[in-house]
Amino acid sequence: MKISGNLVDISGRAIRHVEIEVQNGKIIRIESLPGQGDHFVLPGFVDAHVHIESSMLVPSEFAKLAVVHGTVGTVSDPHEIANVNGLEGVKYMIENGNTVPFKFSFGAPSCVPATGFESAGAIIGVDGIADLLDMPEVRYLAEMMNYPGVLHADKEVMQKIEMTKAKGKPIDGHAPGLRGADLDTYIAAGISTDHECFTYEEGLEKLQKGMKVLIREGSAAKNFAALIPLMATYAQDLMFCSDDKHPDDLMEGHINQLVVRALQEGYDLFDVLQAACINPVKHYNLPIGLLNIGDPADFIMVEDLQDFSVLATYIDGQLVAENGNSHIQTKPAAIINHFNAQPKAVSAFQVEAKGGTIQVIQALDGELITQKQEAEARVVAGFAEADVNRDILKLVVVNRYQDEPPAIAFINGFGLKHGALASCVAHDSHNIVAVGTNDEDIRSAVNLVIAAKGGISIANENEEKVLPLPVAGIMSNEAGIQVGKAYAKLDRYAKDVLGSNLRAPFMTLSFMALLVIPSLKLSDKGLFDGENFTFTPLFLE
Fold first, then answer.
1. Residue 403 and residue 450: Cα distance in Å, rounded?
2. Which helix (H) or strand (E) is 255 found in, with range?
3. Cys-Cys with 429: which of 32, 67, 120, 484 at CB 3.0–4.6 Å?
4. What does the pLDDT look like over 96-107, one tens digit per residue?
5. Residue 114 has pLDDT above 90, yes or no
6. Dist. CA 172–CA 214, nearest whole Å
7. Is the per-residue pLDDT at 38 higher than 80?
8. Superfamily of structural domain 45-288
């Protein structure tokens, strides 16, 4: 195969007209040509940190959508399915990813379960990590969320870190807000990246101390605006990532969108492409070609260097996408799961008032972090109830692995005027999380998820809607476009009919049980203070 075009030489910071010859999936010749070509050829984009499961798609379907946008590979942390199905779940992701031409590189999930303050479906200990690190598809130790364990030199945590270092594989970080001496200790342990920077100052400190910073822009967490000014000085140490990307968003775009935004803000073309294409490959030692002779023929063709409209995507010399159409075919996906919850009665969601003042979680649009509020409880017949007028709604988490009573709290920021939302996509343990204006609709939404053994749902009086997610309760086995359209309908209903003012209400909901992100969250065991890492009472007085 021979193709020609204007080669964007990122490392050489030059553009030249060339002919590229590919044989047996590798580049064997690059020859300069006179004049200019009609389009541009450059290395494909890489998502430097993503949980494939959050797309609600199995890896093969994620790839089918991603290649249309010029993505050729991902650095994928499978800890979502690991929290449900353990080692079996991680191996499921690897095996499914191997069925399609796409460069998935998986991590060994370092924190399964994420904390001891919630019920998860599995445990991956030191022996499990060793098993995974021996697999060629596992190229790094995934995000070390247990930063207190690192700071206090927890034995098991340090064993996982040391065995990874011994194998010469990098270690991903997860340290929101970690600064100063604690950050020094965290870095000294061997942790080399962080995707949880919320401010420019935090990102700058981590870069100055030698970390790689991943600029995240996902469906819920959006840190691009705060961090992109770092590109002016630290392009060699930055990468782009989505972290979590819902299927409707993935249909619209991927890393290509961040490239365009960065260029629109005036940052240098070669610097931006360094972060989008080169840095992840070099940092994680990915088997992805960078348009050098001898490399795998992984590259994209784009119409111009402003809009980056992708004309074609090649992986190992195979044309996998062309003019907005994916050439990756949908294939049957096996189903694995771990789901034992039983239907709940309305009474399970009642909260006896044990005081007049409650702690309220404040959800923030576009952020994983939450804030704490105090509010007067709305008490009706001795029970604390949601108060739509003050946007204080009821939040519940239901253990999916055992039949246990729900944990209940209150939350501000969702803006629902009617009904309830529920989801089994609830980081990191993927219990059922629901938010609603009344107990009846909460019950209905939760029971829809239970009946489907995983999914996302809406209940609004007599109207019920559900998107089943039978693979581990968090992914569909259907075609990606079909799932994306179904999700988009639920998302739109939550906004237009129920009244949510969030950009991604289901994605935001999925993080309300994520205990490792402060400050106030809810696990299936109770209200949790993420700053002090301890349970805290719902009623203050």
1. 11
2. helix 255-264
3. 120
4. 999 999 999 999
5. no
6. 10
7. yes
8. Metal-dependent hydrolases (3.20.20.140)
